[in-house]
Amino acid sequence: MRRFLDRLYAASGALAALSLASICVLMLAQAVGREFGLLIRVADDLTSWLCAAAAFLALGHTFRHGELVRVGLFIDRLPRGPRRAAELAALGLTAAFIGYMNWAAARFVYDSWQFKEVAQGLVQIPIWIPQLCFVIGAMIFLIAILDELVRVLSNRKPTYQLAEEDRRARGDYSEMA
User: Fold this and answer.
1) Which residue range(s) make up the domain with 54?
2) Residues 6 or more apart from 141 whose CB is under 8 A from it?
3) Closest to 133 in 3D by CA, of 25, 4, 19
4) Does residue 48 sit within a domain?
5) Is residue 174 part of a domain?
6) How confident is the model at residue 152 (pLDDT cuts 50, 70, 90)?
7) Are 9 and 144 spatial neighbours (Cβ–Cβ below 8 Å)?
């Protein structure tokens, strides 16, 4: 199970990176196209969908690697016992919030599919297709939060804390800048 989850987080991070790279390629193609009098009319639609995909697909991977904003400023200063309780409370509340967000987003996308909504831009595709990245990314994020909640419940350090400790041991204080 651990291998599957780690691959899931890595795959979602890779898809987010691919989305960013696609935005770069699209923007470069648009800039070069302008020089030759070519206009890529669908660039705005595709860029907006790729931005959303990059943002949401990256959540689980980013969270697990300690790069997502958390309540660490408060929790890091607590002794071991209270820290564990605060970590459990933070993860539990976050899981509840993200779980609700997943339910609402999935319902929203389902409604888009059910009512056969079409994108309003130049690309006339069913809008549920690009919206699906939001749901998938949020689900992977929820899985990552629950994964960390289980780790803390079984008296192990959260993965994001281990990642932070590893960066500090290597002398990388870039997140503090």
Assistant:
1) 2-169
2) 56, 59, 60, 63, 98
3) 19
4) yes
5) no
6) very high
7) yes
